[in-house]
Amino acid sequence: MPPIIYARFLDFLREELALSQDSIAIAQRHFERHPSSFPMLLWQYGLITLEQLDRIFDWLENASHPDCA
Description:
mainly alpha
């Protein structure tokens, strides 16, 4: 994920999903050690619901194709 999209993604998590910085930091630490899907890490750790996970994937899809939104 390009740095600018990653920064916007973190803003989305904080502002739209109301995730705490601590929750995001937990997933970030694991993500750095074991790269995989960041949204899936949030869900696996119980930090987001399946509905929120779906919203994240929708956001990521729109962020990767801004002209299609």
